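[recover] target loaded
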């Protein structure tokens, strides 16, 4: 499902950069796509709540990497969205599209021999990018071992500085899983039945007989401290990428996406899902569903973690985990609370669907509406499919000009 079949029926073609550009321009008109930050003006979208926009104060543009109209407005505050029936002002000064670089981040002159015993599939991985793109894996101590092993042997195999956010401190081969719940406010754990599973799994693990089936109840509490943990792991990172144990990511396409955006602007990418409704508002906010993974720029993380100060310079605002304690107790999902917290800081979601896809490989809704789009991530990838698919994506680019896209055929 992943080698090219763009526009032809039954005819194998390998997509060129020009076809990719055309398909991206078409996709930008899709109602599923929403670029809230107006990096490129979008027209005609439906079903997304949009915060009010205002010109940025003083923003020095980085050297342009795109051929596109620069934004005249950026989100600055979580004001109420457009009223019902109110239409977004039509842009007349250019199209909404971008141009991807004409080379991948992975460089390889010939196909890899997948049968070689000494094969190093990470040889071409652009590890030099990992100082600026911090990748974080979120797991649970109750995660099935086959799922964890598949993830660490494939998608995150080449990530040399991989922080693992968990609900228990323990070692996963060469990696250390870090308990990001340990520093949560005691008040959040007090009189909270969800944390009975937290205390129980610690006792079971200490006795060497760990088998806690209630660990899923802790997942929603990891999102906010996970972002703090990611920042502390690499405060100089430009981008923070978060994924889960069953998330499949095509790194080349993700890195090229990030090449085309400015990390000094508050940005938040992912597969859109409806979230919380702000007090007094009628429309919901939107958040990036955690399963397909999501990306937050350094500027957005700074906004999220910033705390107000008093007249004497003292911090007068609670840390983010304490600030959203009551919301966390009442919400079903941590990714929803994270999206809402970002929204309150003026960082709205850029919903990049189907590039960030909540479906597994066999369930991606390919069709005329979503065709020839760059495939970045998928969710619910089975343990059996994870490693073979990853090996294929590592091996497939004999010609460096081509990109993997939705609508392509994956030859098993």
């Amino acid at each position: 499902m992943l080698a090219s079949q763009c526009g032809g029926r039954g005819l194998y073609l390998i997509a060129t950069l020009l076809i990719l550009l055309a398909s991206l321009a078409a996709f930008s008109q899709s109602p599923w796509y929403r670029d809230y930050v107006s990096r490129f003006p979008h027209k005609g979208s439906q079903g997304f709540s949009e915060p009010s926009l205002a010109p940025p104060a003083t923003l020095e543009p980085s050297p342009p990497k795109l051929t596109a109209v620069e934004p005249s407005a950026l989100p600055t505050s979580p004001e109420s969205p457009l009223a019902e029936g109110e239409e977004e002002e039509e842009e007349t000064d250019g199209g909404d599209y971008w141009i991807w670089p004409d080379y991948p981040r992975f460089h390889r002159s010939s196909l890899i021999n997948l049968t070689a015993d000494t094969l190093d599939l990470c040889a071409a991985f652009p590890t030099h990018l990992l100082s600026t793109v911090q990748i974080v894996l979120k797991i649970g101590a109750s995660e099935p071992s086959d799922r964890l092993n598949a993830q660490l042997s494939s998608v995150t195999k080449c990530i040399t500085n991989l922080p693992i956010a968990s609900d228990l401190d323990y070692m996963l081969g060469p990696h250390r899983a870090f308990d990001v719940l340990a520093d949560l406010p005691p008040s959040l754990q007090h009189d909270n039945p969800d944390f009975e599973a937290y205390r129980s799994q610690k006792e079971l693990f200490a006795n060497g007989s760990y088998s806690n089936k209630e660990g899923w109840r802790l997942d929603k509490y990891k999102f906010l401290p996970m972002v703090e943990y990611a920042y502390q792991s690499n405060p100089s990172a430009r981008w923070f990428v978060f994924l889960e144990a069953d998330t499949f990511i095509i790194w080349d396409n993700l890195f090229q996406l990030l090449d085309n955006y400015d990390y000094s602007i508050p940005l938040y990418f992912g597969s859109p899902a409806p979230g919380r409704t702000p007090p007094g508002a009628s429309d919901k906010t939107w958040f990036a569903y955690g399963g397909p993974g999501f990306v937050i720029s350094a500027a957005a993380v700074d906004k999220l973690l910033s705390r107000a100060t008093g007249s004497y310079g003292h911090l007068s605002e609670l840390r983010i985990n304490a600030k959203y304690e009551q919301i966390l107790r009442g919400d079903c999902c941590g990714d929803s609370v994270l999206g809402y917290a970002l929204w309150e800081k003026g960082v709205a979601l850029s919903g990049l669907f189907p590039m960030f896809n909540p479906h597994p490989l066999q369930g991606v809704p390919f069709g005329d509406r979503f065709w020839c789009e760059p495939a970045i991530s998928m969710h619910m990838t089975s343990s059996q499919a994870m490693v073979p698919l990853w090996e294929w994506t590592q091996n497939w680019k004999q010609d460096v000009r081509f990109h993997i896209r939705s609508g392509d055929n994956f030859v098993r």
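[recover] notes: Residues 367 and 407 are 8 Å apart (CA to CA).
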